[in-house]
UniProtKB/TrEMBL annotation:
InterPro entries per UniProt: ABC1_TM_dom, ABC1_TM_sf, ABC_transporter-like_ATP-bd, ABC_transporter-like_CS, P-loop_NTPase, Type_1_exporter
Pfam family, one: ABC_tran
Taxonomic path: Bacteria, Bacillati, Actinomycetota, Actinomycetes, Micromonosporales
Membrane topology: Multi-pass membrane protein
This protein's name: ABC transporter ATP-binding protein/permease
Native organism: Actinoplanes hulinensis
Subcellular location: Cell membrane
Main location (coarse class): membrane
Length: 561
């Protein structure tokens, strides 16, 4: 099977679920078209088999050896073509299924990255998780069924034409009966659509509840709220089960209709064909063909009803994806973004100015002020410029690529540690670990960088997580690196070692450290002191200690007289 594309999946049309499904089909139009043509050929060959069998039977009854041999060879050829097209069709169908499913994953992940810190405030975690677990399956199935549906529709049309040419009454039964069967099945689709939507919403809420429980289990146990949350989860789980049962009732009716109605249709066509054969209106071979046609029609009819079912499921799931794609971030891109220059980074809200290529510290009398300045400098809030150009006028993706903000809320991900620290394979892991004082952490692991770590790095202590996060930031090597309290969870000896090595690791690059640690400040090139959100003084650490009393009290932890 060909390798699926992993490049940028383009911009989907997020105005409706139907448009999104059409976008997926258009993105895979070559393989979808190939699968549809192969399905048409595959089902067409199957539709020809009953006619060929009927002719062979008639040739055997009339003892026409030449016609019998020709019919057998022709039947063999059709069988070979049917086998080859069937195998190839299935191969393309799986490709289409995977392409639609994983292209949806690409789109959702890209939107999650674009929303960034906005995502948790706009969508529950359960909604995002459910898209990647269940919705992609239904969306892939909806794209896959288009090719099989095309083949089934052509097979029904072909059989109808053949029957009309042989026996008008039997052909009319097929011509009228098939739309009636589809109408009956269609009546079940609307209630199924409503119940699937309700089930999907309940599933998203419950998944979000489960994620909250896992994330806060220790806190819940500490405050004695475990039993309360467990009871609430149990109640919501039972509500989801009840919604699932209601959905399954309609699905069972649909499944039963898919078996019962084509079966009844088979009985009717066979009975009428036998009557016509007994009256001499058709031959024995034609009777065999009619029976084979009626039996064969069960498969394409089930396929057509399956089209309605899977398209309904895909539409419900696509609505969830579209709803996520329509979420706007707190910091949208400008209509006409400008390039981001290199130069001095400045915060207009506080007056802080960051000289390029140097290690600068921001010390605030209120630590929250330093965090807010870091947010503005990294464009998590508006108010900063680089070389006079507002960051709000630059495409957010370019800002994120060149300015990296690392705080203690950043998480380590589950999986192989080496992939977490260096996801893009940039290299320099050993140097970054040494600069962050994290070499001993990796050396103590059973498989070093190949060790699989727990979610959010729970297997590491707070100080170890902090050093590993710093190493990951150094490996990324952005043009501007902003660190918020990167050493407040490590001991003094390790902190001094990190401060010295950080300066060397980021030599010639712009680095900002929000801290009040004298060990870190003594190794910086420039310090900005902020009181009440405004810049009070700027200079070297030792000069500020002598000339700015507020700064000295803050750094040396002295009580205000």
């Amino acid at each position: 099977m060909r390798r699926l594309p992993v490049t940028d999946p383009g911009t989907p049309d997020s105005r409706s679920a139907a448009r999104y499904l059409f976008w997926l089909v258009r993105r895979s139009r070559l393989t979808v078209a190939a699968a549809a043509l192969l399905a048409i050929a595959w089902m067409g060959c199957q539709a020809l088999v009953p006619a060929l069998v009927g002719r062979a039977v008639d040739a055997a009854v009339t003892r026409d050896a030449a016609a019998l041999l020709a019919g057998a060879l022709l039947l063999l050829g059709v069988g070979v073509v049917q086998a080859l097209t069937g195998i190839t069709r299935h191969r393309f169908a799986v490709t289409n299924w995977l392409a639609a499913a994983f292209r949806t994953v690409q789109v959702v992940v890209r939107q999650a990255n674009r929303l960034g810190s906005t995502l948790p405030r706009r969508l529950d975690a359960g909604e995002v998780v459910a898209i990647g677990t269940s919705d992609i399956t239904h969306i892939g199935g909806a794209v896959d069924i288009t090719s099989r549906g095309a083949g089934s529709l052509l097979a029904v049309v072909t059989i109808t034409v053949v029957l009309l040419r042989t026996s008008v009454p039997l052909g009319l039964i097929v011509l009228v009966g098939v739309p009636l069967l589809m109408l009956v099945v269609g009546l079940l689709i609307r209630p199924l659509h409503r119940r699937q939507k309700a089930y999907r919403e309940s599933q998203g809420r419950l998944t979000g509840r489960a994620a909250d429980l896992v994330g806060g289990l220790r806190v819940l146990r500490g405050v004695g709220g475990e039993s309360t949350m467990a009871a609430r989860y149990r109640a919501e789980s039972q509500a989801l089960r009840a919604a699932g049962v209601r959905t399954a009732r309609v699905e069972s009716l649909l499944e039963a209709a898919q078996v019962l109605l084509p079966g009844a249709f088979l009985v009717l066509v066979t009975w009428l064909g036998a009557r016509f054969a007994a009256d001499g209106r058709i031959t024995v071979g034609q009777l065999v063909s009619f029976y084979a046609y009626a039996a064969f029609l069960v498969a394409p009819l089930r396929q057509l009803t399956d089209v309605l079912d899977k398209m309904t499921r895909g539409h419900v799931s696509s609505r969830r994806v579209v709803a996520m794609l329509q979420v706007e971030g707190d910091l949208p891109d400008p209509p006409e973004p400008v390039p981001l220059p290199s130069g001095e980074l400045a915060d207009s809200g506080s007056g802080v100015r960051i000289p390029p290529g140097r290690l600068t510290a921001i010390v605030a009398s209120t630590p929250a002020d330093a965090a807010r300045i870091a947010d503005r400098l990294g464009r998590y809030a508006d108010g900063a410029t680089m070389d006079g150009v507002p960051l709000s006028a630059v495409a957010l993706a370019e800002v994120r690529d060149r300015i990296l903000v690392v705080d203690n809320d950043a998480h380590l991900f589950s999986g192989r540690l080496g992939s977490d620290l260096d996801p893009e394979g940039r290299g320099g892991v050993a140097r970054a670990l040494a600069a962050a004082g994290a070499t001993d952490i990796v050396d103590a692991l059973p498989n070093a960088l190949d060790t699989v770590t727990a979610d959010r790095g729970r297997s590491f202590s707070g100080g170890q997580q902090q050093r590993l996060r710093l190493a990951r930031a150094l490996i990324a090597d952005p043009e501007v690196l902003i660190l918020v309290e990167p050493t407040n969870a490590v001991d003094a000896h390790t902190e001094a070692r990190i401060a010295e090595r950080l300066r060397a690791a980021r030599s010639g690059r712009t680095t900002v450290v929000c801290t009040s640690s004298p060990l870190v400040l003594s190794r910086t090139d420039h310090v900005c002191y902020v009181e009440d959100g405004r810049l009070v003084a700027a200079g070297r650490h030792r000069d500020l200690l002598r000339g700015e009393p507020g700064y000295a009290r803050m750094v040396l932890r002295e009580e205000k007289q």
